[in-house]
Amino acid sequence: MADSIGTVNNQSSTQPNGHNSHSNTTESLWRGTDYGKWFVADSCTSLSSSIQGFAMPLIAQTVTGSPAQATLLDSIMTMISSVLRLPGGVVQDKYDRKKLMIAFGLIGFALFGICTALGWAGLLIYPVLMVLAICLGIRSGLLGTTSNTMLRGIVPDQLLPKASSLNDGRDAALELAGAPVGGVLIGGGLWLPFAVSALLNLLETAAAMRITKYWHRGGRTNTEGRALADDEADENGDAANITQAADEQATTTISSASQYWREMFSGFRWLLSERFERRLILSSALAFACFNSFLLITVLSIGSDPSHVVSASFMNVSVSVGVIVGSLISSVLVQHVRGGIVAVSFYVLMSIGALGAALAPWILARMAFLAISLLALPAGNAVINGFQSLLINKEHMGRVFAGMGMIETIAAPVITFLSGIAMQHWGYSVTSVALGLCIVAAAIPAVTMRELVTLPKPDGWEDHIRKSGLTKF
């Protein structure tokens, strides 16, 4: 489902940009940066992932006739990706993220291209799918979050909330499109989803190669802190300043295993050692894990009646529709409403929506409550992601993002497993209400933090950080 509210975009090794005005944000986001090229690359990756997430289990089940073997592929990918998240964070902090995005796309093009050829030749057997799952898990763990960690190095800090809102709306739309597109492609042949994914990965590579204005070690920024392309830096040398992109430790080769392990876990340690970060990430990880588990058991409960299978599929659709609608108004909310109000509203709506859907006796009522539950997600995500990103330097982004992913990966499967056991023993009604109450409980640590509740509009975030005494990483 949706990313955790605690997820951050890219960070900065220099002081955040000094703009306070909100004028011309639309123009500067698309025309003054390489956000458009990044957006195309990231959209290709998201659509490919959505198609494969739907198609691969069905392809595996078609090949083997075994649902267990089909679900095993996803489990293997998730497990491998989770294990490699922390070392992947170090990789993304140490090396040029544009090159890593290109490598991500080329690897995907090669993997899906090979599977396309094998499928066309009638050689798409289960061991091939298993190897693909392992390779995709490795790619996801080491490079999968590179695009997200790169974002703050592409757009100015004051535009991060707007970019985050657009990304949430896009992701929801692609999530809606992924399943039907994947189904149509499978109807044309088991090899066709792989062919489309290969093409999307190639397009991602091409778009990433065109990115020139982005933060990287030793790169240049203009007087506003915005990344310059290499040719711009040469032409405007008097107006540009060389950023000290990384500290001495980050730029030297890791000389010992102990130092490598310290770096790998540094983001994770920072998240848990700082009170603000700890309460925010644990609150959001638990709330989202409970919400996703609630959504899953709702689908299972409705889908247990063969005549309601189609209705069950619309539960996910209603959530995506809520996110899309929310993304249409999120930019206005972020710029004109205090950040604390937006953030608290997100948690309140999620709690009300989940409890309402749990208690609603009719399917349409459940769909309405689910749509309402994430209506404030794009705005809330934009506020918290944008503010939180100011606390983290660009060169540490990969490690912090990996630490967040690790926390979310630990929480989600445990809560999902316990929800399944609870539903089996006590039924849907009791379990769904319990999960709704758990969402409320998980939200309490976040909505009772003074630093979050009193968060101003984006132009006052830097002052708020200083006044609140929050620590940067």
UniProtKB/TrEMBL annotation:
Localization, per the record, is: Cell membrane
Against InterPro entries, the record matches this protein to: MFS, MFS_trans_sf
Instruction: Respond yes or no to whether keyword tRNA processing is given for this record.
Output: no
The portions of this protein that span the membrane are 100-119, 280-302, 314-334, 341-363, 369-388, 400-422, 428-447
Tell me where it mainly resides. Answer: membrane
Where are the stretches annotated Disordered?
1-26
* Entry annotated with the keyword Transport: no
Keywords, ordered alphabetically: Cell membrane, Membrane, Transmembrane, Transmembrane helix
Q: Which residues form the signal peptide?
A: none
The record's listing under SUPFAM superfamilies reads: MFS general substrate transporter (SSF103473)
Q: Name one Pfam family in it.
A: MFS_1
Specify the protein's topology with respect to the membrane. Multi-pass membrane protein
Xref: CDD domains: MFS_MefA_like
Q: Which PANTHER family match?
A: INTEGRAL MEMBRANE EFFLUX PROTEIN-RELATED, MAJOR FACILITATOR SUPERFAMILY ASSOCIATED DOMAIN-CONTAINING PROTEIN
Name this protein carries in UniProt: Enterobactin exporter EntS
* The species this protein was found in: Bifidobacterium longum subsp. infantis
> What does UniProt list as this organism's lineage?
Bacteria, Bacillati, Actinomycetota, Actinomycetes, Bifidobacteriales
